[in-house]
Amino acid sequence: MIELRTPDELRAMEPAGRFVADTLTALAAKASVGDNLLDIDAEAHRLITEAGAVSCYIDYHPSFGASPFGHVICTSVNAGVLHGLPHDYTLADGDLLSLDFAVSIDGWVADSAISVVVGDPAPADLRLIDTTQRALAAGIRAAVAGNRIGDISAAIGKVARRAGYRTNLEFGGHGVGRTMHGDPHVPNDGKPGRGLVLEPGLVIAIEPWLLADTDKIIRLDDGWTLASADGSRGAHSEHTVAITADGPLVLTARADGIGVPDNAVLPASLTG
Q1: Mean pLDDT value across the chain
Q2: Domain contains 137
Q3: Cβ(186)–Cβ(221) below 8 Å
Q4: What is the mean pLDDT of residues 85-99?
Q5: Structure pTM?
Q6: 244-254: buried (b, 16+ CB within 10 Å) or exposed (e) per residue?
Q7: How far apart are the first and last CA of the chain?
Q8: What's the confidence (pLDDT) of residue 211?
Q9: CA dist 114 → 27, 57, 132, 151 (Å)
C-alpha cells in the first residue's frame, strides 16, 4: 500500500534521516585498510544504541534472505554490491566497500547507502562510484510532484548507459515510512512518463547500484550477499527522498552534498 505523509510527518522523519546520514559519514571516513567488517558492524551497533534508534536489519527476514540478517549494517566488498552480510573479513588496500544502513527513530525509517575505496583507489572503481552518485542525483532531480516513477528510473538509467554500464532491475528503490521496504518499487531504468504519479508526501528510497562489467548477480553462500556473476566490482548509492511541493526533500542528505541535485530541498538540520 502506498501512503502519503503530511508535512508534520515528514518533519518527524528528519531525525532518522540525520542519524543515518551522520553514521554513514562517520563510518565511511573511518574505514581503512586493516578494519574488520564485524568491527564496522559493532561500531554501527554502538551508535544505534547510543542514539536510542532501532535497527531495521537485525531481525529482517524477507523472502530473498536465507535467515534473519542478524547485523545492523550491510557491508558489501568488491564483487559484493547489495545486502552484504558482515563477516570476519579484514579490508585490504584498494577494496571497494559499500555500506547500506537503515534505522527507525520514533517509528520513522530512513535508508541510505554509500560506497568508498579504502587505501589506494583504482581509477575504474572511482569512476564506478561516481557514476552511481551522478545517477542518484539525476534520479532525485526527477523526483518532483507531477512526474512519474518512470521519470526517476529513466534518469538513472540514462546516466548509467552513458557511462557504459548496464542496469539490473531485480532490486531497486522502494517506499520508506514506518517500515524499511514498501511500495512503490523504483527500478533503476525505465521509460519516462510511465508508472505512478509522484504526489507530495510520497517518501521513497532511490538507490542506483551498478556492476563494472555485467548486469547479472548471484547470491553468495552466506544466503544474503548479492554479488556480480563475473566477479567484477559493484558500487551503490542511496538516499531517502520525500516528494514535496517545493522539490525533492533529501532526508538523508550528508554535509558533503554527494548525490544531492541543485533542485533538492535540504532538511532543517543541514540548513540551520
Answers
A1: 97
A2: yes
A3: no
A4: 98
A5: 0.97
A6: beebbbbbbbb
A7: 34
A8: 98
A9: 10, 17, 9, 23
User: Cell 525505465 maps to which residue?
Assistant: 190
pLDDT in tens, 161-178: 999 999 999 999 999 999
Residue 8 banded pLDDT, cuts 50, 70, 90: very high
Q: Cite the DSSP H helix spans in 52-166.
A: 123-141, 149-162
Using CA atoms, how far residue 165 sits from 137, 157, 160, 213, 214, in Å, is 17, 9, 5, 7, 8
Give a yes or no: residue 26 inside a domain.
Answer: yes
Spatial contact of 171 and 211, defined as CB atoms under 8 Å apart = no
Q: How many residues does the chain have?
A: 272
The binding site for a divalent metal cation consists of 100, 111, 174, 207, 238
Question: Binding site: what residues are annotated?
Answer: 83, 100, 111, 174, 181, 207, 238
In a domain, 1, yes or no: no
| Strands 247-250 vs 239-244: parallel, antiparallel or unpaired | antiparallel
Q: How many independent structural domains does the chain possess?
A: 1
Annotated binding site for substrate: 83, 181
